[in-house]
C-alpha cells in the first residue's frame, strides 16, 4: 500500500466514523503514518520495496530531528508523542537521526542481508550504488562527525574490510 493509499484509507475510515479529517499536509502525513503503524505493526523502513513507505520513513525521521532540535511546534511535538512516534523527554537520550544515520543503518542492514558491503564497481541495484558511493565519500574524509565515523568503522570491521583507512584514526 502506498503512502497515499494509507492516507486515503484513513480518511475514508474517519469519514465513516464521523471523525475529523486532516486538513494540512502535515496532519495528513501523520495520519498516514499512524495508519501504516496500525496496519503493518511497525514503523516504515527507509529501504522499503513498497512505494511510499520510504517517504514516510524519511518524513518521520525529519519530524523527530526537528522536534529534538526545537524547530517543531509544541502542538506538533505533542501530536507525535501522542501517536507514539516520539519519546518523551524523560525517556532518555534522543535517538541518533539524520541522513548519515539512515545511511549507516541501511549499510548495516545491507551487510546483514547480503553478507557483503555495497559495491561501487559492480552494484546490483541503483540503491546499492548510492550506498556504496556514500560509503566511499565518507571513507575518503567526507564525514566530520566522529560518532558517524566510529559507526562506519565498526561496520567495516564487522565486514572484515579495510576500505576506509581515513576512518581508522577518527574517534
Q: How many whole angstroms does the radius of gyration measure?
A: 19 Å
Give start-end ranges of low-pLDDT stretches.
Answer: 164-171
> What share of the residues does DSSP label as strand, in percent?
under 5%
Biggest sheet record: none
Give the SSE string.
HHHHHHH
Distance between the termini: 42 Å
Count of helix runs: 7
The best one-word shape is: elongated
Helix content: 55-70%
The chain-level mean pLDDT equals 78
Structural class: mainly alpha
Number of strands: 0
Give a description of the structure.
The protein has 171 residues and is mostly helical. It is 61% helix and 0% strand. It contains seven helices and no strands. Helix 1 (3-17) crosses helix 2 (25-40), helix 5 crosses helix 6 (126-142) and helix 5 (99-114) runs parallel beside helix 7. The chain is elongated and about 55 Å long. The N and C termini lie far apart (42 Å).
Amino acid at each position: 500500500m502506498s503512502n497515499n493509499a494509507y492516507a486515503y484509507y484513513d480518511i475514508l475510515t474517519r469519514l465513516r466514523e464521523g471523525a475529523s479529517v486532516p486538513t494540512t499536509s502535515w496532519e495528513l502525513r501523520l495520519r498516514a503514518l499512524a495508519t501504516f503503524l496500525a496496519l503493518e505493526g511497525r514503523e516504515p523502513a527507509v529501504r522499503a520495496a513498497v512505494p511510499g513507505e520510504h517517504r514516510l520513513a524519511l518524513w518521520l525521521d525529519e519530524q523527530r530531528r526537528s522536534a529534538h532540535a526545537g524547530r517543531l511546534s509544541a502542538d506538533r511535538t505533542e501530536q507525535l508523542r501522542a501517536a507514539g512516534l516520539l519519546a518523551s523527554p524523560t525517556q532518555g537520550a534522543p535517538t541518533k537521526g539524520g541522513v548519515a544515520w539512515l545511511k549507516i543503518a541501511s549499510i548495516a542492514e545491507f551487510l546483514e542481508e547480503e553478507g557483503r558491503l555495497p559495491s561501487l564497481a559492480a552494484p546490483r541495484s541503483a540503491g546499492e550504488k548510492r550506498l556504496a558511493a556514500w560509503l566511499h565519500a565518507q571513507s575518503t574524509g567526507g564525514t566530520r562527525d566522529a560518532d558517524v565515523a566510529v559507526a562506519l568503522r565498526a561496520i567495516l570491521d564487522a565486514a572484515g574490510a579495510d576500505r576506509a583507512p581515513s576512518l581508522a584514526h577518527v574517534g
